[in-house]
Design a protein that fits this description.
Elements: H1 2-9, H2 14-21, H3 23-33, H4 40-53, H5 63-89, H6 94-115, H7 121-148, H8 151-158, H9 161-171, H10 179-200
Length: 201
């Protein structure tokens, strides 16, 4: 999930990638809705993503980047399903620790290939910092939050992610968005909030 996310943001603005990636958890929610009227939230999310990636004439983002973002979304949806199993099987952060060892084994060959099998000291420090700040700290905080917050509250708070991603992309990476893309992000956020609230009811 993380590898494909990074590959996506190399080609597509951060806010768009986060919004597209949200199709993963929304897809998981849709399976729980079956043929319910709540599937309207998934449809709204798809409309939002279409606004992000295409206008009437052409695709507006890199299609390879789009594929990576969709793969990251599939990874996120799978993570949600597997996280429930891991959470019920292991105590504390044991399951998370094991998953990070597995993830390191999977990701290391890609990193060594990119660096040509050389690891300068500065790169090692940056890699450790990135490992702590990107997957480790957010996942630990997420697990702790899930233990203390109702799932609906957590889901609504998570729904702000595409907007926060777009704001971070604009302020830090200087990635402006067109009005159509902002509208698409708004659709995804509304779909996520709607799915969370309707699932609670």
């Amino acid at each position: 999930m993380t590898l494909t996310f990074y590959l996506a943001i190399m080609r597509v603005p951060l806010g768009l990638v986060v919004a597209i990636e949200f199709l993963g958890p929304l897809g998981v929610a849709a399976f729980g809705f079956a043929r319910s009227w709540r599937l309207i939230w998934l449809a709204l999310a798809f409309v939002g993503v279409l606004l992000l990636v295409r206008n009437l004439e052409r695709w507006t983002i890199d299609l390879i980047g789009l594929a990576f973002a969709l793969a990251a979304g599939a990874g996120w949806g799978t993570y949600i399903i597997l996280n429930k199993r891991v959470g019920s099987t292991f105590k504390g952060l044991d399951g998370l620790a094991i998953s990070f060892v597995a993830a390191a084994l999977i990701a290391t060959p890609f990193g060594l290939h990119e660096t040509g099998l050389s690891m300068p000291g500065g790169l090692i420090v940056q890699t450790i910092g990135l490992a702590v700040l990107t997957p480790l700290l957010p996942y630990v905080l997420e697990m702790q939050a899930l233990r203390r917050l109702p799932s609906a509250t957590f889901g609504i708070l998570m729904s702000a992610e595409p907007g926060i991603g777009a704001l971070a992309g604009y302020l830090i990476l200087h990635e402006p968005l067109r009005p159509q893309q902002i509208a698409g992000i708004a659709c995804v956020i509304c779909a996520s909030v709607g799915a969370t609230v309707s699932a609670r009811s």
